[in-house]
Amino acid sequence: MSGDHHDAFGQGPALRVKALEALLTEKGLVNPQALDAIVDTYENRVGPRNGARVVARAWVDPEFRKRLLENATAAIGELGYGGPEGGHLVAVENTARVHNLIVCTLCSCYPWPVLGLPPVWYKSFAYRSRAVSEPRAVLREFGLELAGDVAIVVWDSSAEIRYIVIPERPPGTDAMSEDELVQLVTRDAMVGVAKVNPVARPR
Hints:
This protein is mainly α. It has 2 domains: 13-43, no CATH class; 47-191, Nitrile hydratase alpha /Thiocyanate hydrolase gamma (Nitrile Hydratase, Chain A, Alpha-Beta Complex). It is built from 11 helices and 4 strands; from the N terminus they run αααααββααααββαα. A two-stranded parallel ribbon has the order 1-4. Strands 2-3 form a two-stranded parallel ribbon. Helix 4 (62-70) crosses helix 5.
């Protein structure tokens, strides 16, 4: 590629990818600029940072939060996010009494415009089957222990509808700006296998 997307990796699979890319480019089968554009899209314009922006905006803007819960596709579109794999999005909100978990039991349907490409574990048969049958145990394996009185709601994504979790805003963040809040939100929290870590209070 004309960029430096793979320069940090000098051996193994990355080296083979670079050699294959060079060969395909030499034969005129691949356009390096087109590949750079694709990489840029998924590194900088599609992915968890988009979802984090959606969550942070919902935390600081009650009217946006209301629109997001009523029509996530339209509200997320206000921020400029949308496209393939994001045609019909639904936002579900975690509270002190309800925790939402996202899965796709059939394959790996996932809201690419706001979460990027699905992680390997999301596509695994073990996650797809157990998230429905024993969600509390699955969450525990991710390091998330929920109190017994917290209800877990599992949402099954499909080709027609995909979900994003709006995590609870952690304590200690009242004075933080939207841009600062974006940095706290993780992909796993927006799938529901984690919470957003609370901000450490100065002693």
